[in-house]
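Quick illustration, no need to memorize.
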Amino acid sequence: MNLLAIVALFLLCAALAFSFSLRRSAWRDTHVAWPYYARKPLASPEHVLYQRLVAALPGHIVMFHVPLGSVLGVKRGIDLDLWEKRIHHLHYDFVVCTPEAIVLAAIELDGKTTHENAHAGWIKERASAAAGFQLIRWPARALPDQVAIQQAVGELETQYAEGFSARWWSTIPSDHSRLP
């Protein structure tokens, strides 16, 4: 009886291992249909806001579902792994860039489309501020119109341009002797 139970257990384990190996390699089989289908990448409020952003900001780059790691870097000399682990699972709903691909702002829709908790929102706020761009939050139930979008981004462009000219002017020698 004991020998019979051991043989049955061995056969069961062998059958499970064989079944598992077949299932595991099935994705490599070219004759097996894969279970994917195309779905809409944006929820309804996100799609509406995306269309408004593109219409209101011609010439700008508007991206959606952007991983924070795609637009945030870690300064040299800092523990890269530690800081990247804080953001690797997070994304911005939208990122607006200048035509030169410089980030002006990240945009988050608050409401039903918000999939992250308050702690994730806090991390996004701190990370964006540290990187030097603003995180704009708009409620999903009261999306801004094109004029409001242009005003918000226009103010950011002005701040960026003023900051850029201040940085540029600071590189000019104060004695002006080396200027042509």
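The chain has one domain: 44-169.
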